[in-house]
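INFO batch 0412 | record 1 of 1 | parsing
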Amino acid sequence: QVQLVESGGGSVQAGGSLRLSCAVSGHTWSDAYCMGWFRQAPGKEREAVAAIDSEGSTTYVDSVKGRFTISEDNAKNTLYLQMNSLKPEDTAMYFCAGGETCKDYWGKGTLVIISS
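INFO prediction complete | emitting tokens
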């Protein structure tokens, strides 16, 4: 059974940094896969934040470009999201997801709160 478990969320002031982690277990990805971070703020729809594919190519939503970095450690089966220069509008529940479509499996989320 595939499990994704996020950690690293918390409450920080604007301008601060956080690193989210997503530990993945019970999986055997095919040669082509995608891992990503999504977020959902109160009253808003879930949005894709960043993704990385099996070739290491990365994509970001415009609002986080230059501030967030997605990476993975295949040896540790862990996905990361380094978040710098955080803004109050980054406040949300952050989820990791992965699979052949990048949305096959989901974690339960970790809460990020940015105060001004």
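INFO post-check: The longest strand covers residues 18-25.
INFO record closed
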